[in-house]
Specification:
It is a single chain. Strand 1 and strand 2 form a beta hairpin. The chain is built from five helices and two strands, in the order H-H-H-H-E-E-H. Strands 1-2 form a two-stranded antiparallel sheet. The chain is globular and about 55 Å long. It has one domain. By secondary structure, it is mainly alpha-helical.
Length: about 140
Amino acid sequence: MNAYLLQIAEKYVRWFLLIIALIALMRGHNLPGGGFIGGLLAALSVVFRGLAYTPQYAREKLFMSPENYMGLGLLFIILSLLPSLVLSEPFMTGYWLKINLASDLVLKLGTPFLFDVGVFFCVIGVTLTFLFSKTNL
């Protein structure tokens, strides 16, 4: 497709969608749903590239294949479940690591966020697998 206007807009809209996807993912650190909607927005940025150019071009420009995104997401999900299994706590018990960055600033990383990152990558992989299978690529 020779949609020059879409090709120009794609350079900016794609990055905007990825930034919003990361913001949605970080929102899920404290509230539910961030990994899912963030993954959809990140996959939408690839879809927009496919609309501007071709689906084949969008697939070639991916950092990893959609199947690898799913595998990476499942790895993060499994890693988020391990602390509760190793410590013999109830399944999916949340654990947090607090890192003092400054006198007032504390970074809290936890297993719920790790789970959200896993969902983020799984949703990207599943969405792109579905979309690319519909275009016979």
